[in-house]
Structure formats: C-alpha cells, structure tokens
Amino acid sequence: MKNKPLHVAIFGAKGYPYVYGGYDTMVKELCERLVKKNIRVTVYCHRSLFKERPKQVNGIDLVYIPAIESKSFTQLTHSFFSMIHACFSSADVIFVVNSGNGPFGLISRIMRKPTAINVDGLEWLRPKWKGIGGKYFYWASKMATKCYDQIINDSDEMQRIYQELFNASSKVIAYGSNPGLQADPSLINKWQLAKQGYYLIVGRLIPDNNADLIIEGFIQSSSTRKLVVVGDVPYKDEFAERLKNIPDERLLFTGYVKDQQELAALYRNCYAYFHGHEYGGTNPAMLKALGYDCAILALDTPFNQEMLQNGKHGWYFQKGQKAISAVIEKAEQSPEAMQQLRKTSHEGLTKKYNWDHVTDQYIEVFKELAARK
C-alpha cells in the first residue's frame, strides 16, 4: 500500500488529448508530466467530442462522460456528472478547472474528497456572459472559495482580486510555456505574407479580446503592412461576421490555424503581435508570443503589465481606436525598438512560466491535499 501512486482525477476541460483552448493545453501539458512522475491521472472527457474512446492514452486513464448538449449547459452538466463519478472513484485528489464549476465543490465536500480548483480570470466581467451568465459566474467563483480545499490563481493580480472580492486566500501557479520555439519561415507563404510584413492577432473573435478596436485602429493608421487575424468562433455570430466583412485589403482573416507549425511561423515572423485580451490572468497566447520572440503591443491591464514585467517586454496601449492607431504609428517609426523587443521577449518566460516548474507546484498541492485525507 505504501507504494501505491497518488491518484489525481481532473475535469473541467474538454478532455485528453483534445487541444482547443487554454485549459485543454494545460491538462495535456500537466497530465503528461504527472504520469512521468509516477502519479496516476484520470481525465474526464466530453463524450460527444471523441469518436474513438480508448481507456488509456500515453499512460493517462480516460473516462468519457455525457452532457446535456447546449451552448450554456454542456460544460456545467459534464462537470456535474464528472464530479459525482470522481467522488465515487479511487482518486485521492480531484482537480477542477474553470470557476463556473465552483458550486460542485459542495459534492466533494460532502463526500470528503480533497479538491483544488483553478479559477482562471474575471469570467463574470466578460461581455459574452451578459446578464444572468455574468451573475452566475460571480456567484460560482464565490462558491468555489467556500467549497474547495485549495483555490489556485494563475497570476498575482488574480490572487489579489480574489482576496479583495471574496476574502479568500489562494495559491498562485502560473500557466506554463515552452521557450525557444522554432518555426519554418517558408510556411507563411501560404498566405502570401512577407517576414515582418504584417501585424498579428491570435484569439477567438469575441468582444472580450477587443479585436474590433484593434482592427478599427489599424484601419485608421497609415501602415502599409497587413493585419493578420487568426481565430474565429465555432458558431454563427454577428460580431465575428461584422469583423470579417470589413472592406480593407490590408486585413487577412485566416480562421482557425490548426497546424501548429503554421501558427508558429505566423508568430515568429510578424512585425508585432497585438494582444487585446482584457479579463484573464496569465494568457496562453501572450506566452506563445513571448516564446516565439514577438514584439508585443498589449492592452494596458494589470494582467498584461504583470506578464510583460511592466513594459520590459512589450509596449502598452489604452482601450480606444486613437490609442491603437498611435501605437501602430510609433511602431512603424521605430524598427530598431521593435527588433530589440523581438531579441529579448523570450527572457520574459521566467521560471514561473516553465511547465516543469508549474507541474512541480501542482504536485505539492496534490500531495498536501492527499495528506489531509
């Protein structure tokens, strides 16, 4: 019994080895490392997303749970059923991602299963969760602080916010990255792009990421470069369609770029990367931009100030079309400063953002929780 490996159950993302968003990537990077450190891992997968359903992949146990399929309830019902299953499993610790799953900690508390939750960003402020959705996320985040044994935030700023809003202490474990990433420059030829001949946006076409403001500010600038927008939304959406129909020959919408080598080439060869994300903590797209040595132009938020070390690894712009046009004009007139940002941006990926270090921190949390049991 003494040699029995620690067993961690994980849910709240789409599953493994599914990689679509930040949480999915974290589950993949974390679980693969946990298994190598002799920790048994069970990941709960959205049954509808997997045509083939092997019980184990790369040493990770997989459980396929159904859900009530709808835009609002798929994730919540999947997490509800996953929590019940995990509570009756042999798992020593349950790890949950997404603050929307906050209320389900009541179940694990009743069942006396040690739990940790990564609560991510300010979900209740995101424009896509207007009205009831925003109120639910605020309530769910508050419930998470009362129901789970350990709250995990991915940035110092989010830790401060949770302390201030909910009087809740938390542990900061950042999202990880892989520095020194390489790319084949010829892959951008697919879009008839030239090295440093374009600005880049990467992210879903939703109001939260301010692609509309960046695009409008870019159109008003005198830049002769292109603005490449990577991303879309997986459903018909008026906001996304309006952006894609803006008439300007400098705009290029690639849609989703699923080939990671092509995406790497787009990052590494841009003149500058625009980051308009407003409500998150540590952002995966920003970490990729740092890893691919991009010159970064970021919306001025406390989260982006933290990630770019208060301007050491990027320039900031205020939320507004004129401010965006101004930062573009400045970048156009400052090729040497842009080159210096490219030369040093990877230095922003300190140990804090290293996946191996991130994994070691999670292991400490899991072992501490299991010891309480």
TrEMBL record:
Keywords associated with the record: Transferase
One Pfam family, short name: Glycos_transf_1
InterPro entries in the record: DUF1972 (IPR015393), Glyco_trans_1 (IPR001296)
Molecular function terms, GO-annotated: glycosyltransferase activity
Residue ranges of domain DUF1972 in the record: 7-177
SUPFAM superfamilies noted in UniProt: UDP-Glycosyltransferase/glycogen phosphorylase
Residue ranges occupied by any Glycosyl transferase family domain in the UniProt entry: 194-344
Protein name as annotated: Glycosyl transferase
Native organism: Echinicola strongylocentroti
Lineage, highest ranks first: Bacteria, Pseudomonadati, Bacteroidota, Cytophagia, Cytophagales
